[in-house]
Structures are given as C-alpha cells and as structure tokens.
C-alpha cells in the first residue's frame, strides 16, 4: 500500500467536494498537507489510515454543514421573526386555552351557587334544616348530580343528599373557619382520591346557625379540560411544525438565491 | 462557551505549549496526555475555523511551507483554556474524592 498515496490522495482531493465550500476554499491546501504529513508518519496500516481519513471527511462535512446551517439560520432576521411569531402564538394560544379552562371550572360552580342561596335563605328564615333539605341519596363517587348538605355551627353534618360510603362527608375544618369569617367560599374539595367536587359553602345565621354546602362532581369538567389541553397541545405542535417547515423552506430559498444569480 | 468539546479542548491544549501547524496539533491531540482525541483534517480545520471565529486561536502569519500554516492561542483563548482546565480540575478532584470513598467502602 506504500504506493497507494498518490491515488488515494487524488481521490481525497476529489472527495473534498463534500466539505463545505467556504472551508474547502480556505483550508484545502492545509488539509492535503496535513494528510500528507499524517500518512508519512502513520502508526497504523495504510488501509486503516485511509478508512479513518475518509470517515473523518464524511463526518466532519456533515457536522460542519449542520453548524453552518444552524449559525446562518440563528443569525438571520428570518429566525428572529420565526421565533418571535412562535412565542406570540404560544402566548396567545396558551392564554386562550387557559381562559377557556378557567371558564369551564367557573361554570362548574353552577347550579351550586343558586342552590346555597336558596337553602341558606330558607334556613335563615327559621325553617328546620331537615325540612328544607330535600330527601335523597346521591353517591358522590359515581354520580354527576349536584348535592346539598347542611352542617351545624360546629361543622357536624346534619342532613343532606350527597354520600360517600353511606355517610355525609365533611370538608376540612379550615373551610368552615374561612366561611365563618368571610361568609362564603368556592373551593375544589377532594374528600378522597379520585373524587373531586366543585363546592360552594355559605354561612347560615339565625335560629339554626351553620353552613350549607352544595357540590357536584368535577369529573365531566376535568375530562373536558383534559380534552381541551390535548387539543391545544396538538394544535400548537402542528402550528410549530408548519412554522418551522415554512421558515426552513424560506431559509433554503434565501440560500439558493445568490447561487442562482 | 464552557464546557468545551473534547476536540476543541485538545486543540487548545496542544497550542498551550507553543504555536503549531495542523499536523502537529493533530498528532499531539492524539497522544494520551493530549486528550487521546483522534481527528482527521476535516475535523481539525472545521474546529480551527470555528475557534478562530470565536477568537480562541489565530494564525501566526509564519509559515515554512505555503501549505503549512501555524496557529497560536489568543489571550482570550488562554483564558478559556485556563477556565476549562480549572473546571476539569475541580471535576477530577471530586472524582478522586469519590473514588477514594468507594475504595474505603469496598
């Protein structure tokens, strides 16, 4: 293989066509000289030497082209505008999805607000809570129906329609403390893992002081919110892909312009 | 800029001693004490080009052969080299400390 150098170097010189043009113009002579020096001083066999040399040329050509595209793209006004547009679309889309999600959650407090207003009014006027709260049994774990529960001034469940394991559940004491101080509270209550309720609690004063809680399962709303965010993510991904694809096409068109001229 | 790639650090290390031409850099980088980084002309001159654009190295202007140019570190290149060497030094201290702890455990 000792005489292989002229032929292989000639082929290497030709293969330099895959190396980026700017680097080739600037470093071709030095690369060939380095190759010559390295061949003369090679510790390995000529076959291995040329395999390494061509492998390096192939790999570095690819890497340098990636570097060049990345550098030229990131420093171009097109990249700036693409990123700015992507950021604006992300913020607008995210804000829209967040607003819709919040509206869905707020909507889940109806009809509980009307229910507590009605029952609080009735009990405050002197009616017995047990007479006001309608009879009924709703399994909070399964049903989507709204429920109402009356708690006495100590936070003990009196009468109601919503049950978990055949008992009226009781919210944390902190909720009653807050309502005692502020009059009303709208809260997401999780009496057990997997059961989340949109709850409205209101203070009752008068002959039968206590609290009225109206609640209903958030299952449907949370499924709607999950669907909403999945759709938003899908639309965002498609938009970003279209944006990046469009920007890449424009970038390539810009790169080809001087060559065509 | 830190951490540097193995190729870039090996080139800086090779040029830290003295100015060198391409093949001398390549040869020194391939030695165990030079980082043991095996690179061909494509990788070498691509890296040198980027390093020159980043102000880490420069051509000396000296040549003993039209096709053999010499490169040296810039002041900034020396600073980056020192910073990376210090970073690697701290990392190696931690490695030695942990290795000795492992030795004690076993």
Describe the structure.
The complex is a heterodimer of chains A (261) and B (106). With 261 residues, chain A is of the alpha+beta class. Chain A is built from eight helices and seven strands; from the N terminus they run ααααααββββαβββα. The two termini of chain A are 45 Å apart. Chain A is rod-shaped, with a radius of gyration of 36 Å. In chain A, 23% of the residues are buried. Chain B is an alpha+beta fold and 106 residues long. In chain B, 61% of the residues lie in helices and 16% in strands. Chain B is built from four helices and three strands, in the order H-E-H-H-E-E-H. Chain B has helices at residues 6-17, 22-30, 41-53, 75-105, and strands spanning 20-21, 57-65, 68-73. Classes of the chains: A alpha+beta (261), B alpha+beta (106). Chain A binds chain B through residues 19, 23, 26-27, 29-35, 37-38, 41, 52-53, 55-61, 63-64, 67, and chain B through 21-23, 26-27, 38-46, 48-50, 65-69.
Morphology call of chain A: rod-shaped
Secondary-structure-derived class of chain A = alpha+beta
Spatial gap, N to C terminus of chain A: 45 Å
| Spatial ordering of strands, largest sheet of chain B | 1-3-2
Helix content of chain A: 55-70%
Total count of helical runs of at least 4 residues of chain B: 4
Mean pLDDT of chain A: 90
The Cα radius of gyration of chain A reads: 36 Å
What's the order of the H and E elements of chain A? Answer: HHHHHHEEEEHEEEH
What is the subunit organization of this protein? Answer: heterodimer
Percent helix range of chain B = 55-70%
Largest sheet of chain A: 5 strands, antiparallel
End-to-end distance of chain B, in Å?
39 Å
Element layout with pairings:
The complex is a heterodimer of chains A (261) and B (106).
Chain A: H1 4-15, H2 21-40, H3 46-74, H4 77-107, H5 112-124, H6 129-132, E1 138-139, E2 147-152, E3 157-160, E4 162-163, H7 173-182, E5 184-192, E6 195-204, E7 210-217, H8 219-260
Parallel strand pairs in A: 1-4
Antiparallel strand pairs in A: 2-3, 2-7, 5-6, 6-7
Chain B: H1 6-17, E1 20-21, H2 22-30, H3 41-53, E2 57-65, E3 68-73, H4 75-105
């Amino acid at each position: 293989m000792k005489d292989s150098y002229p032929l292989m170097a000639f082929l290497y010189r030709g293969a330099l066509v895959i190396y980026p043009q700017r680097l080739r113009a600037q470093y071709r002579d030095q690369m060939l000289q380095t190759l010559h020096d390295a061949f003369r001083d090679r510790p390995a066999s000529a076959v291995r030497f040329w395999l390494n040399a061509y492998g390096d040329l192939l790999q570095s050509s690819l890497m340098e082209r990636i570097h060049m595209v990345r550098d030229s793209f990131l420093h171009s006004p097109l990249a700036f505008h693409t990123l700015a547009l992507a950021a604006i679309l992300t913020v607008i889309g995210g804000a829209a999805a967040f607003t819709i999600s919040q509206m869905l959650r707020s909507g889940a407090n109806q009809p509980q607000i009307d229910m507590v207003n009605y029952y609080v009014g009735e009990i405050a006027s002197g009616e017995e809570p047990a007479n006001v709260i309608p009879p009924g049994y709703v399994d909070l774990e399964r049903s989507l129906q709204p429920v109402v529960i009356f708690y006495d001034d100590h936070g003990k469940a009196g009468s109601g329609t919503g049950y978990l394991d055949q008992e009226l559940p009781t919210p944390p004491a902190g909720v009653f403390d807050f309502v005692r101080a502020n009059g009303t509270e709208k809260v997401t209550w999780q009496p057990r893992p997997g059961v989340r309720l949109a709850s409205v609690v209101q203070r009752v004063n008068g002959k039968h002081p206590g609290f009225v809680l109206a609640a209903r399962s958030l299952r449907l709303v949370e499924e709607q919110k999950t669907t909403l965010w999945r759709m938003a993510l899908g639309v965002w991904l498609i938009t970003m892909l279209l944006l990046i694809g469009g920007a890449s096409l424009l970038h390539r068109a810009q790169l080809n312009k001087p060559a065509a001229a | 800029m830190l951490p540097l790639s193995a190729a870039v650090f090996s080139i800086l290390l090779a040029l830290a001693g003295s100015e060198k031409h391409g093949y001398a850099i390549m040869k020194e980088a391939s030695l165990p004490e030079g980082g043991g980084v095996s690179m061909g002309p494509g990788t070498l001159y691509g890296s040198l080009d980027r390093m020159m654009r980043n102000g880490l190295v420069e051509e000396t202007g000296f040549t003993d052969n039209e096709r053999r140019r010499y490169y040296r570190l810039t002041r900034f290149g020396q600073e980056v080299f020192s910073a990376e060497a210090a970073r690697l030094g701290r990392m190696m201290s931690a490695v030695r400390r942990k290795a000795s702890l492992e030795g004690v455990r076993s």
